Amino acid sequence: MGALISANLQPIITFFALRPVAFTHRWRYLAFTPGFWLINTMKYLPWIFSTAYQTYYIPSTHGGPKIRVIVFEPVYGPSSPAKSKPRPLHFTVHGGAFMPGIAEQNADLAQRVCKNTGSVTVSVQYRGAPRFMYPSAHDDVDDALAYFLSPEAVQKFNLDLNNVTVSGLSAGVNLSLSASMHHIGKIAAAVSFCGVVDIRIPPGEKPKPPGFPTSNPIAFMEPVFDSYAGPLRPKYIDDPRLNVILAPADKLPTDMLFIIPTMDILLHEETELVERLKKEIEGSGRRVEAVFYEGELHGFPELPGIVSDPKKCEDAWKRMIDFLKYSNEKGGWKWAV
Length: 337
Prior knowledge:
This protein is α/β, with parallel strands linked by helices. The protein has 10 helices and 8 strands.
């Protein structure tokens, strides 16, 4: 419950914080407080009495507070590999325009991956905008992933470092792929849902696809959505750690699956990245795939059925599981329950 309370207090803390946060960001963030409370509460409450995961706090190596993660471990059935066998690791990062949330935002995804692939699955939360700017969130995610690839975590969780995969939603894609760059050749696969891969263009200037909705009820929040890196954009315009679209294929996970809705301002940058990566890996035996979902909005796999197609959402989740299972089987792990 402490994680939920802390997350819900962030707009208030930010408004009165001593840190130099622009007032134009403070009031917008505070005004949207009911929206953040609703999102965080809906994501947290289904897990309040759950024993499906354990909570851990990872030390920061960048001077920040300890980093909260939740860890799902597989339940073994009679036909599953013995528990003594090292297990795959899946590391997932929630979205939210680089704004602070809770690890439970990706708990449904984490549980699904754990149950269907037998991977020890970690969901991480991080500091975010507008109170904390780049590279705070990147540092937190980097530290958390590095810990789970360390000898201490490998022994504690019985991990197989030949089978490490990552995923993210929206800003979480940027964070997970960026963290992967510190471990070249060690991340076997990645799944991207509606990924933010190009910070060089502010949200309000990104090209809108044909048929994109003309009205946006939360357009007033765009300055906050851009507050994590926007003020630093000129300084980091060529930084692939922030702008993943600039990263060469040899610094990214071996195999990558991109889940892309067509009614999203991120459609252009994701398509550009996929097309470039496909050319770079041609003939290498690596795998880059993109699946486009016509008419779906940003974040569609998590949106309620009244604004998204449940069949398309389930198809996206299934493709994620199949892709991760394929990767794990390449690494010698086959899960049966």
